[in-house]
């Protein structure tokens, strides 16, 4: 059983023949049907982040006496971010240097003594026990010397670490310490976004997530501004859905960005699944949707069937209704697979007040659909993305 509840069904049916014939021509606007490219896209929002965020942790502990970098500052690898009170570490370095000098003298003395005892032992002028004592003293002094060298290296490194330096080129995104704070080893002091590149992470429902593949192109836009602000590519896809949300994660690496794009910007990503070239494309507003409800008697199930129509002007005087088949939908643009041909005069305003065969009067200048009626002021050559 079929019931009809047409939505936007272009005009009422014809009444009495005499009344219909005397009806005035309806004023309409037309646009020439043209061809262009149209894309199927998936849209989602995500925040821009650096691909790598480095946490800077002090290697020594003491009071911070100076802050040299703050939130938002650009830094190069090796730049000083903060200074830690270094007097104890300078004293430790001097002590290590003195210890090294002392152990070096003892090592040189015992080395010489050991060599002399070896020579005396070879001429039977020294006993075995005297040689063993000399060897033991030599090995002990050598171990102390090597230990002093290691202690000096550590003391020198500790002193150098009283200057907290950036390990990468980047931008300071977080500062967790202030002048006068106690810097502690193991506790973060700064976070730096490594400017090797930016990315955004999208979390998609299963149906969209399953259609995404690595390498697909992505356009990124600000929700409150026109135009493409950045371009990217799908670089990674999570192999599983999140257990808590049921969403799949997709990582988009940005390949071309404008100066407006910054770390933390919330942007709309449009992942292009496929693009059809040279398709007949018309404004969505020019279509008339007809909804039919079909009830299956045996199963008592309801099925919604959607049909679409459009009107063309014949000789600029008569409206002719066409049944059309819709393909890709891209924002306020739709692809027509059948029912319209290029250069036909598509009625784009006034079509809801007419019926098939009505007299019309064309007003205004001829336009091409999609050149003036398009999504968010974008030219038809831009990929604008469908509502999904």
Automatic annotation (TrEMBL):
GO cellular component: efflux pump complex
Ranges of biased composition (kind: Gly residues): 8-19
Domain Multidrug resistance protein MdtA-like alpha-helical hairpin, chain residue ranges per copy: 93-160
Region (Disordered), start-end ranges: 1-21, 101-140, 357-388
Pfam families documented for this protein: BSH_RND, HH_MFP_RND
Superkingdom, taxonomy of origin: Bacteria
GO molecular function list: efflux transmembrane transporter activity
Location of the Multidrug resistance protein MdtA-like barrel-sandwich hybrid domain: 53-191
Composition bias, Polar residues: 110-121
Biased composition (Basic and acidic residues): 357-377
PANTHER family: HLYD FAMILY OF SECRETION PROTEINS, MULTIDRUG RESISTANCE PROTEIN MDTA
Annotated family: Belongs to the membrane fusion protein (MFP) (TC 8.A.1) family.
Annotated protein name in UniProt: Efflux RND transporter periplasmic adaptor subunit
UniProt organism field: Natronogracilivirga saccharolytica
């Amino acid at each position: 059983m079929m019931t009809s509840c047409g939505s936007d069904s272009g005009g009422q049916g014809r009444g009495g023949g005499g009344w219909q014939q005397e009806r005035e021509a309806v004023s309409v606007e037309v646009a020439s049907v043209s061809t262009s490219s149209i894309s199927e896209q998936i849209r989602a929002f995500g925040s821009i982040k650096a691909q790598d965020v480095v946490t800077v942790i002090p290697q020594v502990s003491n009071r911070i006496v100076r802050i040299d970098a703050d939130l938002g500052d650009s830094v190069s690898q090796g730049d000083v971010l903060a200074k830690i009170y270094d007097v104890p570490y300078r004293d430790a370095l001097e002590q290590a240097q003195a210890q090294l000098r002392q152990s070096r003298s003892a090592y040189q003395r015992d080395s010489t003594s050991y060599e002399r005892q070896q020579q005396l032992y070879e001429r039977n002028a020294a006993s075995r026990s005297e040689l063993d004592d000399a060897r033991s003293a030599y090995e002990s002094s050598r171990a102390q010397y090597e230990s002093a060298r290691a202690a000096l290296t550590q003391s020198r490194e500790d002193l150098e670490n009283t200057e907290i330096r950036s390990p990468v080129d980047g931008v300071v995104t977080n500062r967790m310490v202030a002048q006068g704070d106690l810097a502690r080893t193991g506790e973060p002091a700064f976070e730096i976004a490594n400017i090797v590149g930016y990315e955004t992470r999208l979390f998609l429902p299963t149906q969209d997530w399953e259609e995404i593949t690595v390498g697909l192109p992505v356009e990124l836009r600000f929700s409150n501004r026109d135009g493409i602000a950045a371009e990217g590519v799908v670089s990674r896809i999570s192999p599983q859905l999140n257990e808590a949300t049921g969403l799949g994660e997709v990582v988009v690496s940005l390949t071309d960005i404008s100066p407006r794009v910054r770390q933390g910007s919330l942007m709309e990503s449009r992942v292009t699944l496929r693009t059809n070239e040279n398709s007949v494309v018309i404004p969505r507003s020019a279509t008339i949707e007809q909804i039919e409800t079909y009830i299956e008697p045996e199963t008592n199930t309801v099925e919604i069937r959607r049909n679409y129509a459009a009107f063309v002007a014949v000789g600029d005087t008569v409206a002719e209704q066409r049944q059309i088949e819709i393909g890709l939908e891209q924002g306020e643009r739709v692809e027509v697979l059948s029912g319209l041909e290029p250069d036909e005069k598509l009625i784009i305003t006034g079509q809801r007040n007419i019926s098939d065969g009505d007299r019309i009067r064309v007003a205004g200048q001829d336009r091409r659909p999609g050149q003036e009626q398009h999504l968010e002021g974008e030219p038809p050559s831009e990929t604008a993305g469908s509502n999904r």
